[in-house]
Amino acid sequence: MKDCKDVPDESECGLCGPCATQVLSESNLATSPHSSSSSQTITMLPPKYTRSVTVTAEDTDITITVRYGASKEEDEIVEVKELGEGESYTFEEKSEDMGSWQNVRKILSIKGQIGEDGEVFEKVCETDCEGVHSNIHYTVHKEGVFKLDMLS
Questions:
Q1: What integer is the mean pLDDT of 94-99?
Q2: Which of 130, 27, 23, 125 is nearest to 71 (CA)?
Q3: How far apart are CA 137 and CA 152, in angstroms?
Q4: Beta-carbon neighbour count of residue 4 at 10 Å?
Q5: Quick one: pLDDT at residue 137?
Q6: Whole-Å CA distances, 138 to 64, 106, 148, 150, 152
């Protein structure tokens, strides 16, 4: 494989390690090292998160824990709600004060636990997001699984 410095066109280098497009997941930017610093191409990747989550306890009593993101990990919020069989609850949108503006806290994950000694199971909400959603509705089942019901 040729080194990118030895070829005039980036398509000829075979996308060696230094030439592969680097995705910076924390800042949601994709950059290419072939671009010069003055004309570097920056592409924003679309955000993927939900602002609120509704959970329905389909066939058992359950404790649901939702984790809201923040600009700093230590500022994340955790909200816990106990649901009886057949009950639903919506974990509402929350925001973070950034001084002169408000940041929507994306819902990172939901966890379920059946009974006090039951095993904890988790669903990372981003895996079901196709962009920014105002609400995702999950049903939760005694088998320890969250099932996607509706995106909005």
A1: 96
A2: 27
A3: 8
A4: 18
A5: 98
A6: 11, 16, 5, 7, 12
Where b means 16+ CB within 10 Å and e means fewer, 78-105 reads ebeeebeeeeebebebbebeeeeeeebb
25-34, long-range: CB < 8 A, 24+ apart: 33/4, 34/4, 34/10
When the pLDDT of each residue in the chain is averaged and rounded to a whole number, the result is 83
CA atoms within 13 A on the CB side of 129: 21
Whole-number Å distance between alpha carbons of 60 and 117: 15
pLDDT tens digits, one per residue of 26-73: 334 454 455 455 567 888 888 999 999 999 999 999 999 999 999 999
Length of the chain: 152
Judge whether 148 and 65 are in contact, CB under 8 Å: no
* Two tokens, residue 74: 């230590």
Amino acid at 23: V
3-class DSSP assignment, residue 116:
coil
CA dihedral 66, 72, 75, 77 (to 10 degrees): -10
